[in-house]
Specification:
- There is one protein chain.
- The chain has about 120 residues and is mainly β.
- The protein has a single domain, classed as Nucleic acid-binding proteins (OB fold (Dihydrolipoamide Acetyltransferase, E2P), Beta Barrel), CATH 2.40.50.140.
- About 10% of the residues lie in helices and about 55% in strands.
- The protein is built from one helix and six strands; from the N terminus they run E-E-E-E-H-E-E.
Length: about 120
C-alpha cells in the first residue's frame, strides 16, 4: 500500500472563545472556530479579501491549554489532521462534518509557561 499523508497546517484567528466540555469518559474536548483569510481578484480585477472558517477540535491537554489561554480574536498556529464524521439528524437524514483534529497548537498572543507545554 502506498504511503499517504493527512496533515493540516493553519495560521489564523479565533472567531469565538473555545467551546470546552468534559465528556462522559472524562475526556476534555475544545472546539475552536478558526478563520483564515486570503485574497482573490474579482471580475473588476480588484483584490477582495475572503475568509474561510475551520472547525478545529482539541482533546485533553490541548483542550485544557486552549481553555486556559485562548479567547476570541487570538492568533493561533496549529497542526493536525482532517477527520470527517457522519450522523443522522432528527429527520433521519445523513449529515457530515469535516474537522481538523489538533496535534499541536502554538499560542501567538500569549506566552505559555514551560510547565504547561
Amino acid at each position: 500500500m502506498a504511503k499517504s499523508i493527512n496533515r493540516v497546517t493553519l495560521l489564523g484567528n479565533l472567531g469565538s472563545d473555545p467551546d470546552v466540555e468534559k465528556l462522559d469518559d472524562d475526556a476534555k474536548r475544545a472546539v475552536l472556530n478558526v478563520a483564515t483569510n486570503f485574497k482573490v481578484k474579482n471580475k473588476k480585477d480588484e483584490w477582495e479579501e475572503r475568509t474561510e472558517w475551520h472547525r478545529v477540535v482539541a482533546w485533553d491537554k490541548q483542550a485544557e491549554l486552549a481553555e486556559k489561554y485562548l479567547k476570541k480574536g487570538d492568533r493561533v498556529f496549529l497542526e493536525g489532521r482532517l477527520r470527517t464524521r457522519s450522523w443522522e439528524d432528527k429527520n433521519g437524514e445523513k449529515r457530515y462534518i469535516t474537522e481538523v483534529h489538533v496535534k499541536d497548537i502554538i499560542f501567538l498572543n500569549q506566552p505559555v509557561k514551560e510547565e504547561d507545554e
